[in-house]
Amino acid sequence: MKTAHLQPADRPITAADVPMQPASWDIWDQKYRLKAKDGRPIDETIDGTCQRVARAVAEVEATPELRECWYEKFLWALRHGAIPAGRIVSNAGAWDHKPATSTINCTVSGAIQDSMDAILGKVHEAGLTLKAGCGIGYEFSTLRPRGAYVSGAGAYTSGPLSFMDIYDKMCFTVSSAGGRRGAQMGTFDIGHPDVMEFIRAKREAGRLRQFNLSLLITREFMEAVRQDTDWLLAFPLLAKEVEQDQIDLSDPERIVWREWPITTGLTLNGIGQVACKIYRKIRARRLWDAIMTSTYDYAEPGFILIDEVNAMNNNWFCETIRASNPCGEQMLPPYGSCLLGSINLTPFVQNPFTAQASFDWETYRKVVAIFTRMLDNVVEINGLPLELQRREILSKRRHGMGYLGLGSTLTLLGMKYGSPESLGFTEKITREMALTGWRTALELAQEKGPAPVLEQDFTITAAMLRQRPELARDGIQEGDRVKGKVLHARYSRYMQRIAELDADLVAKLAEVGARFTHHTSIAPTGTIALSIANNASNGIEPSFAHHYCRNIIRPGKKSKEKVDVFSFELLAYRHLINPQAMPNAESAEERLPEVFITADEVTPHQHVDIQAAAQKWIDSSISKTANVPPDFPYEDFKNIYFYAYEQGLKGCTTFRFNPEAFQGVLVKEQDLANTRYRFVLEDGSEIEAQGNEEIEYDGETHTAANLFDALKEGYYGKW
To answer: Which residues, in sequence order, are bridge partners of residue 702?
Structure first.
């Protein structure tokens, strides 16, 4: 027995006993450690970072006594697994050193009106948002298709994709707060005439690389694919166009009526749909195949099942969602914002890798309750640059608590990711977070007041009665005025699920109101998990691999740098059980147990099943990627997305390593070793190198893969 494994007899061995790996210290130092202008560290340790954040957030409390009390509780929670998102960790309590920064990770642009002033105005707003350190999402399908006539200019428009290029270059140029790269999400309606151009946009080297791209997929389209029918590509007609051109709005060959986020200057029917000109018809399955081919080769566009998003939105009565934050876990209305935080699940595992392994549910619930108040306090120190953003977050106070390390935790407990018992654990861990969070929402509302939007009166419309037939059954009629807290607690589909678990709680929330309108989402947590959580698995994911490379940006480096990292569960197993253990070891003495699986060893259906188990109790959304190996069959790949739709998910994203595209952040050594890159020199000669080979170029040493990627994508020397 090694002395490092000995513990006091009165406490079990926990995952918290595992030492931090060098890569984790390094990323914390680079990304989250507060430093003075001259580079001098202000946070001496990770615990020093926790103290800074806890103090800053506790200062929101009303009295000195409360501030000190909650500082101690917040610090305890941070020491026991609570990890605020990167903008909070980097910027809370750091205003003396970087005053123009935000604690908010997620924002969405206001709706982009189809005019030059509106388009360029939103570029300005986006620049300010990115400079503050926030990610931002936009919907671009509100812009006219390529070739549409612009009467004011007497010309034809170049289409939404050309304007996306402007936003892309702006993001590439703006220096984001805290050394963070800008992050953007562009969403696009599946019925827009330029949808094929959107799908294929990233086939061009270096184009739209500051964007994640996602399609807004409707149930109508999915059923058209299922039934192999035609799909109409259309765009709204201005009311003046209808009048000037004497367009017959009853002609089904020219006009289709659709929901649209902007109605000003358009022609509406009796149920609020707008008249859209049909540009062309396309076979739904042909469009589907184009999407699938692109996602298979380029991992984009992602899927946002927008009807499910809006149907399950807690704020169904006062907002329509068409966009998301860059990673897709926060579906937000115009100018919507949301802060994030995750609970690292691994510290709650007691006696890992043993028959006595267990999860400390009592401490977990306590951390959730305290962390909920902590995140609610962050709303007050949001630091958002735009007045409309600040107004939106203060009105609804939405935040997104989630967790990280699910995959690592399952391994510590002896469960295989995707197994029936892992699905049960995933649902329970999410359900307990939700219940504890909404109980805290009631307590906070009783102490500090509910979210202001929930105290407002809303007029019941015909559309609301169609969406929620139970309103009429409860005697509520069109034109009645109803409090937001009633519409939120009693009539949101998500809160109705909570009522199945605790009806009294929901009844009190309808009476008092909740402190916030949304409580949960699951973020990808890439760098935060690697650093502060010692590379516990990202978000809801299994570990990408147990020993792999992470491509990171280093200030002053001309390409990304490859850093070797180990999964948390491998570190824990080597520390607590077998120091010789390694992945893919041939000898029995070094072999890992079968429970050690990786992302691409999990079937796509298992990825979706895990997401579905969590989504049931997540009131916003989930950032989740189904990793598939490079040789995964294309026909099987296509089925992933239909399965996600059938399971009622709000979104779906996949990733397959493809060296012909850009390679991504996480890369397996074997994929690099199996890939050869060809470089064309200035004299026309060519050299080839394996992806993991090192190359001397321009005074620096690069891996062949990272150098090739940087040169091809146009960011060489950017950082």
So the answer is: 695
Dig out the tokens for 561 from the structure: 């740098």
- How far, in Å, CA of 701 to CA of 428, rounded? 48
CA distance 13 to 3: 13
pTM of the model: 0.90
**Are 457 and 481 in contact, with CB atoms under 8 Å apart?**
yes
Asked if 71 and 212 sit in the same domain, the reply is no
* 160 token code pair: 């939404």
Residues near 152 by Cβ (< 8 Å), separated by ≥ 6?
A: none
Q: Are residues 6 and 152 in the same domain?
A: no
Backbone φ, ψ for residue 8 (5° rounding):
-55, 145
Question: For residue 451, with 0-12 CB atoms within 10 Å meaning exposed, 13-18 middle and 19 or more buried, which class applies?
Answer: buried
From 654, 673, 692, the end of a domain falls on 673
Cα 212 to Cα 185: distance, rounded to the nearest angstrom: 5
In whole angstroms, give the CA distance from residue 120 to residue 126.
10
For residue 403, being part of any structural domain is answered with yes
Q: What is the CATH number of the domain that holds 58?
A: 3.20.70.20
Residue 662 host element (H or E): none
Q: Is residue 97 part of a domain?
A: no
295 and 207 housed in the same domain:
yes
| Domain range enclosing 394 | 1-90+338-447+514-673
- Give the C-alpha separation, 49 to 43, whole Å: 5
Q: Looking at the predicted structure, is the pLDDT value of residue 213 above 90?
A: yes
H helical segments located in 379-502: 387-396, 406-412, 420-448, 462-467, 470-473, 484-491, 493-501
Question: How many structural domains compose the chain?
Answer: 4
Give 484-530 pLDDT, tens digit per residue: 999 999 999 999 999 999 999 999 999 999 999 999 999 999 889 99
